[in-house]
Structure prediction request, 522 residues.
Amino acid sequence: MNESTAFSNIKTLRGLLDSGEILAVELTQIFAERINCLNQTSKAFISLDIDNALKQAEQLDHLSNRKILAGIPYACKDLFDVEGIATTGGSRVLHDNVATQDADCITQMNNAGAIFLGKNNLHEFAYGATGENAVYGTPPNPYDQTRLAGGSSSGSAAAVAYGLCSTALGTDTGGSVRAPAALCGLVGFKPTYGRISTEGVIPYSWALDHIGGITRCVADAALVFSALDGQRVDKALNLKNLTVGIPETFFFENADSEILTSIEQLMQLLTQAGATMKKVAMPSMEYTRTVSLTVQMPEALSYHSRYLESRGELYSPDFRAGLALAQNLLAEHYVRAKRFIETYRRDTNRAFAEVDVLLTPATPTIAPKIGVTEVSIGSYSEPAGNAITRYTSFFNMTGHPAITFPCGMHTEGLPMAAQLIGRHYGDEALLCVAQLIESALGFCVPEPDLSGLD
Amino acid sequence: MKKLQIETLTGIRDQFASYAWDDDELNELVDPKLGIITGFQDLLDQLEILRQVDLGDTPPAADIKTSI
Prediction:
């Protein structure tokens, strides 16, 4: 019961809770015991709040009014403030930074009845997509312990993927929710830029940061979005009227052949279901990484300047190097990069005049090996972090909502995933389309084999 | 555009409003040895290409701040 319960989706758990087959306090205990057994291996949690979680669950068990996430255990990346708990950012710099109030997102999740279990590991201050962390450890992928869970929301993805909570919140500045979710066989959803409050969340880059949720299925992503946004996701759509945009360039280049095949198969399935595939022109992607870096690094420096003088020696050398780089960019570089971002937004909006959603692979690669700095696909080679976020980071600049979801298993035993992008503020429609596709696909990621780890 | 020199970065550190980066940290940007940041010169070269693109009257993308 414990194993299957821990890997159940929110809808199933809500059914068990509503019928009285399980109490919220029992469900919380199941996850607490799993965390106790598996956190050393998964390195998913930095801090825990189990006593409060059990108290909250006990109170919920005496209430009849059931909110949408009532009794559902969740976690958050350790960038979110939770009153009375340190917000470390995964860094020694903020080891004693105890929050005095909850982040807006935490308030929303708690108001929806979700039970907070603890805070997740991450790439220090979200600076990096591999999830490697010298202080709190590097979360391994549950499908292959020698590979990365991915990042920067590495612990959030690992927590859900190891069955340590039902859902986890993360931040996504270049793909840090969607990419680790994709590498771990989960769903990662980044709503439209600005739609979900970032108040009380340590920023990495104000212009690119998005709040997102990692879940087991698209329906769960919709429930978490509803809790965060306060709107119900309820749209009547069908695949027959759907026009799916397929980017003509960049998103299908230099990718693992099995991942490309899985997306081709998804396109065929959508065509059979009556959807129309349409090639679309996208902006040139040649300098998009440069543009993104030129915005994000000065913003990170500007935020962290408050700690550099007094605690500068506590930062990891790689983050300090990034901040030093930022110090030597010119103001006009930053402004120009933001003007390029405006052109990306406009050009992408233009593409949406002809299509309802865009479809791409989520990542060009399966989860890279831990410690590998370069990933090679054929003759194409790039840093592991760049590969992980190559297909996701563009949509942080444009601000369009985007979701990644599993679409197959690689012969190496790792999950593969697709990415679907919607119109600005078309979050509900995107979630509905993604649910339809998930149902039509009928693909379920097998649970990871965690035997022998506890 | 000339190749970046360490003197440029130490000059910015010492003469501009800047955090007091170590010489080693600045040198790593110019002559990477640790492999932490390997592409600063590439980034500058690409920024020079982007500088030459006429963006017309396109304004910077606006940020949006949402709170409950």
Observations:
- Chain B has a mean pLDDT of 90.
- Chain B has three helices and no strands.
- Residues 2 and 56 of chain B are 27 Å apart (CA to CA).
